[in-house]
Amino acid sequence: MAVPALIDSHCHIVFRNFDDDLDAVAERWRDAGVTSLLHACVEPSEIPAIRALADRFPEMRYSVGVHPLDTEHWSEDTQNVLREAAGADERVVAIGELGLDLFRDKNLAEQLAILRPQLDLAVELNLPVIVHCRDAAEPMLEELRARKARGCCPSGVMHCWGGTPEEMHQFLDLGFYISFSGTVTFPKALPTHDCARQVPQDRFLVETDCPFLAPVPRRGKRNEPAFVAAVASRVAELREQSLEDVAMSSTTNARALFKLP
Is residue 101 assigned to a domain? Predict the structure, then answer.
């Protein structure tokens, strides 16, 4: 039986632990049916290396942005650096990953100070955002709702979803997609399981967030794009659907959000 086509909607293969075997990793993701992957950026110094990876792997698209835990990488000219990088390469299909993380850091004001200009840039460039939101649903929703009221809220995806169904529905109401990672395979991730069951068919993506969060049964190992098949398989089980249906929907949704070929 043919392997269903999948999109890994969030990965980080620029990291050094892929240096020695990236060609083999690519062969495995192709064998697993991964036809496209979206490489997320966490800070501007990564952009040249990510661009070089896109040159090497034609199925790759990428984002540009600054992660909420990397506020020290933001300076007065960072917004312009991101603007120029996005304008210079049509393979840039999103701004991010941006967001809020109050699990690791409590510097909400600093995080908002780098989040807001990135959201502004996404609206300016008509690009979706990739949102990292950990222990910060309330301030994130407050920010996005205020923007929605002013008509300046970008589209986007809540990446590596780990919130509650109630939080998920509030982000869905704002027009956001929900992306499931290897955490959906973890036995104790019950709220994530409920979200996977409840999310509308036209509003979910699948991702690896590799090299982090490898799915069961590879938990604790280096994650890689091929393992998105295990994520999709678990989402299919939770939704009582076929893997083919979940693969088709998640692929269609990712293509719609990021305008992928």
Answer: yes
Mean per-residue pLDDT for 15-32?
Answer: 95
- How far, in Å, are 12, 17, 37, 241 from residue 22 at the CA level? 12, 9, 14, 33
For the segment 125-182, what is each residue's pLDDT rounded down to a tens digit? 999 999 999 999 999 999 999 999 999 999 999 999 999 999 999 999 999 999 999 9
Q: Residues 212-222: pLDDT tens digits?
A: 999 998 888 99
What's the predicted TM-score (pTM) here? 0.96
CATH classification of the domain holding 67? 3.20.20.140
Give the Cα separation of 25 and 224 in Å (integer).
7
Asked if residue 1 belongs to a domain, the reply is no
Residue range(s) defining the domain that contains residue 41: 6-258
Q: Over the Cα atoms of the chain, what is R_g?
A: 17
Tally of domains in the chain: 1
Instruction: Decide if 97 contacts 118 (C-beta within 8 A).
Output: no
Angle, alpha carbons 124-163-123 (nearest 5°): 5
Give CA–CA dist 207/91, Å, rounded: 18
Give SS3 for 81: helix
Distance CA 251, CA 261 (A): 11
